[in-house]
Amino acid sequence: MMVWRRALTATVVTALVLTFLGFALLGPDQYGQRISVLTQAGHESVAGTFSLSLAGSFSLWPLDPARLALAAVICVVTLWTIVRDSSRGFVAALLTSLLLAPYSGSTLPRSSCSP
Known about the structure:
The chain is an all-alpha fold and 115 residues long. 73% of the residues lie in helices and 0% in strands. It folds into 2 domains: 2-47; 65-113. The chain contains 5 helices and no strands.
């Protein structure tokens, strides 16, 4: 039981120290923006007007037929990797979920990511 308390204490202390370090280095503006976005999403969700924007997503969504075929190949390769070696399969599953999930990627519009 003592080991769990130490681990929990270390986790909480590390999280607080890193949060305060980020706050000190980056200032309160980014934290304020994050809280503003979260509260605005909450208000929109309650009002029934909440929708997700895919403008900055680097995932394969929306799936047209070509992307659907690519997604199917990625899923098959991931499953094959999981069956062969569970540790590599875990990494493959993480990477696949990031590629196929519409929430992954940057929050920047695609035009600002172009060279």
